[in-house]
Structures are given as C-alpha cells and as structure tokens.
Amino acid sequence: AQQKKTIVTLQAPSNTTINKHIYGHFAEHLGRCVYGGFYVGEDNERIPNTAGVRNDVVAALKELQIPNLRWPGGCFADTYHWKDGIGPKPGRPTIVNSWWGGVTEDNSFGTHDFLNMCELLETEPYLAGNVGSGEVQELADWVQYVNHAGESPMADLRRTNGREEPWKVKFWGVGNEAWGCGGNMTASYYSDVYRKYATFMSDWTNTGGLFRIASGANVDDYEWTETLMKNIKHNLVEGLALHHYANVEWNSKGPATGYSDTQYFKTMQSAWKMDELVRKHSAIMDKYDPKKRIALVVDEWGGWYEVEEGTNPGFLYQQNTMRDAMIAGLTLNVFNNHAERVRMANLAQTINVLQAVILTKDEQMILTPTYHVMEMYKVHQDAQLIPLSVESALYTFEGETLPAVHTSASVGKDGKTHISIVNIDAKQTHQVDLNLGKSYKNLSGRILKSASLNDHNTFEKPDAIKPESFKGFKQNANQLAVELPPFSVVVLTLD
Ligand code: AHR
C-alpha cells in the first residue's frame, strides 16, 4: 500500500559543511547570456550599468549571494582565445561563435570585463580554459596574466591594460566536455592531456593553491570517471566535473511552458536521476580517493527544453516555470545531502539561457521561479549538514512512481536550523512528519507555490510567482507536521 505520509528524522549535525560553492552559476558566451544579459556595453545610455554591466542584474545576483561564476563556457571555452579579449576594445579581433548560433562576436567582453564584474558581484570567478583548440602555453599564460603579482611577461601586459593587482583566480576548468565539444577525446587520451596542462598551471603562490577541475563525465558515463580517477595523478587535480541536464528526452525535449503531465513527470524522473549519478560517481571516486580530497563538481545542471518560438535555436532561450522550481529545489537538496563529495556546482545558465535565474528584455528584467528557490536556499551556504533519514510518500503517475518529497537540512553559524522541503507531486498535497529531536521556540517558513504547474513570471506580470510566508506547520513536542501543497518548495527556519 502506498505510504500516505512522509516521515523525516533529523540526526545530529554532521561535521560536513555544505560548501557555498554548490550554489554557483554559469555565464557562457551563448545567446543573450553575456551580451544583452550581463553586459550591455559601456556606452549604453538606456540601461543603467557599471562599466557596461547591468546594475539591475548586479543587484539581483548580490541578493542571491552567488558564490562563484563560471565563464566563458561551456563549449565556447574550447574555442576561446583569451588574448583576443584584452587591450583596447576597438582593436580586438572578432570570433565566430561556432557552437551557438554562428554569430560573430567583437570580443568586447573579455578577461578584465569578466573579472572586474566578479568583483562587483562579490563572487569568485571560475575560468574555463581552452584545451580543445588551445595550447598549453596559452592556458599557462592566462594563469600568469590574472594571478602573477610580480614582474613577468603576462603580469606586465596586464598592467599595460590597466590592472595593477592580480585578481587571484582560484577555480580553473581544464577544458570542458572533453568527450564531446571539447575535442571528442577518449577518457584515457584526455587524462594524459589533462596531466600536461595541469602541470604548467602555476599557482603563483597567491591563491592558496589553484583548484583545477578536470572535464568530467557526460551523465552516466562511469567509465570516464573511473579512467580519470585512475590515470590522473591526484596532486594535479582538485575537482572532477559532471554534467547532467533534466528534460523529457534528449532528442525530444518538449516545450518550456505548456508541457503535459507526462512531460512533467518525465522531467522529474530525469531531475531525480541526479541523486543516482552523484551516488555512483562518488562511489567510484571513493575507491581511488577514500579521503574525498577531490571534489565532485557538477558544473552544468538544470532543465533543458525546446527554445521559445521565434528565437534563434542556437541561443537556448527558454521560459522558466514551477517545473524549474521543482528541479532546482530537488537538485539542491541532492547536492546538500552529498556535500561531503559535491563541493561545487553551477546552474546552467544565469541569464536568458536554459534554466536561467534572470530573464531580460531590453530595459526590463524579471526573476524566475528558479531565482526564488536559489534565494530561499541561500541559508544552506556554508552551514553544517544535518543528515536525514527519509521515508517518502510516492508521487504516482500512470503506474510509475517517484519519491514525492525531497528534503535537506542544515544548521547555520547563527545556530538556526533550516529545512528545505520540495513536494514534486503535480496533484497531491503531502503531509510530512519531521522528527526534530528537540522542540524549538521560534518557527517560521517561506513557500514558493502557484495555482498551475505551468505558471511562470512574465515581463507583464513579473511577480506572479514569488516566495510568501508559510504557516502550514504545527509543532507538537519534538515533532513537526508540515502540509505541502502540490508542486511547492518550502524552507523552514527553526530557532
Ligand atoms: O550549457 C550549454 C552547453 O551544454 C554547454 O556549452 C556545454 O558544455 C553543454 O553541452
């Protein structure tokens, strides 16, 4: 018989910190993410900006406390030559974006623009190096250019271009999707290539050690993880990537809005696969790295659907509904619960591309349901993980089932406990009984919900979906009963 209630038991806080870098974002030169999204040009008089970067975007992302931002790709990274994006803008060569829409870019948003923007956002940059079509020297030079404090060819060039102090960039991707757009390499060939590139990436002693991330597996390619963990010397790597996108089917992704119940259920199945992927890739990593020194970095995740009608298919512009809020809530709970190994992740992508947190149209900007989930969950950043045991009720659809309720919990530095709960069931309210282990004096909650699953914010109604105060819970001694409406995300604060 189907269990009616979900039972969640909180254990004592663990020694594991939920690394804030799990809440990272991604900005590729793709469609209107960088150009038109982040960057509108220094001369733009219509859209308020700081050195060409939209002020409204900066304010919204600061509110999210985004911990890191990955750039310039994605597939674009393995075509990008950073030296073309420095120096006086009028003299810069162009680049054709061969992966995304075939558009010609003027390289006006380059290394200085990105790294200065990260300072504005108070976020850490994560630079993705070109391994596919670049050279070892080129990547070594980039590290020297942005990180070397003394006198050196690249640091001197940086100064000539107006920046005295190094930016001290810690996070570096050594290629992207090396199994595909990054060069169609085999795992064993890439692991040798990786070793060579990583060897010449000097730390220049000012970042506390570079954090080098190897291009990881495509979804469930466990052989890839196995080979890299075996072949790459562990003193050369700090993180191993993993990419997984949620959709109905890779070859028939379905629309971003107006999807059917079947398409919704299939997307939830695909999103929930992240749990299995993280477990299985981690188990392989555990064999070679039992002390968990190397992080699993899920540097691309999110929902990927068909583009909005009338938009460039290469620009990957899609709307963002309550389905995306479910993906975000569920996936972030998975990452939190595996925080020992998953120590960094990047939602794809920040603005106007795939599962964006922000959409822009000329001067207008809207925040998506995904933005609101990220904002509600920021309480977990750098908090201590509270392990849970969960017996979830089921979400049943046409004879198939998924756990309906997905939860994670943590205790922050201020001593407050936060519990994030998602009910992905499209139709049923679910009751969750939480065994707290003690009773709390002050309890409050926030909820993200809407009347219809397909609901989303639009430029006409930008605040149709936003978090509200939540009172659907009752404490009885050490127990808390919570009622979660269908397709809703709740974050509780207990003190
Ligand atoms: O995020 C869009 C694309 O998805 C990235 O460029 C690539 O790495 C992945 O295939």
From TrEMBL:
One GO process term, biological-process aspect: L-arabinose metabolic process
UniProt keyword terms in alphabetical order: Carbohydrate metabolism, Glycosidase, Hydrolase, Signal
GO terms, molecular function: alpha-L-arabinofuranosidase activity
EC number(s) reported in the record: 3.2.1.55
Pfam families, sorted: Alpha-L-AF_C, ASD1_dom
Similarity field: Belongs to the glycosyl hydrolase 51 family.
Record's subunit section: Homohexamer; trimer of dimers.
Protein name: non-reducing end alpha-L-arabinofuranosidase
Source organism per UniProt: Sphingobacterium corticibacter
